[in-house]
Specification:
11 helices
Length: 250
Amino acid sequence: MKDLADNHGKLSMTNLALHLSRSINAVSKLHAQVAQHMYPDDTVKAVTNGVHHLSWTSRETQHLYDKNLPKWSVDPTELLKVKDISDTALWEAHMENKSNLLDYANAMTQKGLSPDLLTFGFARRAATYKRANLLFYDMERLASVCKGKVQFIFAGKAHPRDEHGKEVIQELYTHVKQLSGRVNIVFLENYNMWLGRLITSGVDVWLNTPLRPNEASGTSGMKAALNGVPNLSILDGWWNEGCRNGENGW
């Protein structure tokens, strides 16, 4: 057992798991490439993560699919026929989702988010490599480009022992205050599955800015896509293989 787990005299749970496993898989194709490079003596296969379609589609989106793709709930491949749904029907469902999100966000923050503004969403675990604060690299340019045109909704939690993750959230609050009156940005607290579904279904564009190739898979963008929301994302994790530039995002 010591030989299997040894890592320069220290116990390595990773080495132990690799040596005792019959099969080793990563959670996206890019993750498999990265992991294979890290562990060249083992064979790493790619089994890309997914999400449960019934859990992550909003009530309004489900009604849309029930009407137009009646078998989608038992056969998710039916969603490949989504192009058969009219643009008008898709847009009406999206605007209902957006209205639900903005009603909740405004009730929680009194920020006056507008349904007429392009709304970006970013909600996930507050880990440093996910770079929630990358958007604020150039504050003045952000303000000049977005004022009166774009608004942002953030949410997420840090692990209780992740001090750097907590700092990310603190920085977000600071940026929200600094841009007050110029760009409307809100941070919704008490992030959970219910709120996650509300945000992924209700924003206009899903923002994803990880430091490549640190995102093993990342599934929030899949949840957005299930509700017809396009992704604007670094080509990392699942998006590296899921992106159809100009069709489902950029």
